[in-house]
């Protein structure tokens, strides 16, 4: 196990009814801006619960943060935050609303000319507006981490950033808010969390037994509950376990002291940026190809993963089982499963050209170059 520091300042309020405790988490006298998406929160009563809980505060609203949140939309919110002297943000939604709110928080105090440099060039975030979250979609883990992924319409880019200033102050995790989630979003959430774990686990062994066993337990909980979560929205034990698994999958815990991959995510972001597929759909496409192309380099961990999670003895069987799992949830694992992609060959060419031009090297050993990206994607047509 390598040297590490572990720090996670996010306070979690978990369980049914926790939204009513919102007011006590926000500093008294704050002027609050509540941020949300396209309106799902108005249909399931979350909006009404939040508005009620915010009664002691002066607050305004910013709605319309879209899936894969767009820089252009978020900069409109930044203007309002500055103009209205907002001093606390409250994100109510899934990963997109939470990520978008992290960017609003950071961009408000950005003193250069183009705040998107926070994402593209790692421009320093020296200060951010404090914020909390009410999570409505278990998937990304954004509610307990400091990262965000922001898209820019004008350039068809999708880039991530992370800063010590963009941890939520608190996150409210009430599993009953998942009742209204469509099956597609449920399945997406399970796949996303599964791949978050493998990005931090399916690399090479460093004798980090706790991280390995935690990772395997999160994967097992997702496998055990995934199907039922997609098919039986009423089961709150299942929803609770999935929600907590998703949060634990990307809050820094299993990443401590171990190598990390993230190539599936980085390739996936290009697919979303260029072809508009959901984040988890891109992961389900890329993952089996990446594991197969990198099978030799990942062999030891793939065998451990196969044995402990799927009860199989070889690497290929472990990959096949995982792909089967994604498909059983209803998430397509090939470009051909998504007619909206159109010509997959042309999309692959564009993605490969982007990586070649940027000279990007991906993976835990920085050994996935644009040629390997092509190999991976060609397997997924
Ligand atoms: O916009 P509304 O109307 O709220 O509808 C949303 C949206 O259409 C809907 N939804 C959310 N909660 C609901 C609900 N519908 C009914 N009932 C509810 N309770 O679901 C749709 C998708 O929401 P979105 O927030 O886009 O999904 P998700 O949570 O999967 O977030 C995806 C985004 O997070 C990024 C992704 O790249 C993508 O942009 N990620 C963020 C990460 C992080 N910050 O750590 C890590 C991830 O790897 C990921 O990259
Ligand atoms: Zn993800």
The CATH topology label of the largest domain is Dehydroquinate synthase-like, alpha domain
Strand order of the largest sheet: 1-8-5-4-2-3
Assigned CATH superfamily of the largest domain: Dehydroquinate synthase-like - alpha domain
Measure the end-to-end span.
38 Å
Number of domain units: 2
Named CATH architecture of the largest domain = Up-down Bundle
Strand content: 5-15%
Q: Kindly provide the radius of gyration, computed on alpha-carbon positions and rounded to a whole number of angstroms.
A: 20 Å
Q: Uncertain regions: pLDDT < 50 for 5+ in a row?
A: none
Class by SSE composition: alpha/beta
What ligands are attached or bound here? 5,6-dihydroxy-NADP, zinc ion
Report the top-level CATH class of the largest domain.
Mainly Alpha
Helix fraction, binned, reads: 40-55%
Largest sheet: 6 strands, parallel
Summed up:
With 381 residues, this protein is an alpha/beta fold.
Present the secondary structure layout.
Blueprint (H helix, E strand, L loop, with lengths): L10 E4 L16 E6 L3 H4 L2 H8 L4 E5 L8 H13 L4 E6 L1 H13 L9 H4 L10 E5 L11 E6 L4 E6 L7 E4 L9 H19 L7 H23 L4 H14 L13 H13 L3 H15 L5 H12 L4 H15 L14 H15 L11 H9 L3
Parallel strand pairs: 1-8, 2-3, 2-4, 4-5, 5-8
Antiparallel strand pairs: 6-7
The site of 5,6-dihydroxy-NADP has 34 residues, from helix 1, helix 4, strand 6 and helix 6.
Keywords:
single chain; 381 residues; alpha/beta; Rossmann fold; Dehydroquinate synthase-like, alpha domain; 2 domains; two-stranded antiparallel ribbon; 14 helices; 46% helix; globular; binds 5,6-dihydroxy-NADP; binds zinc ion
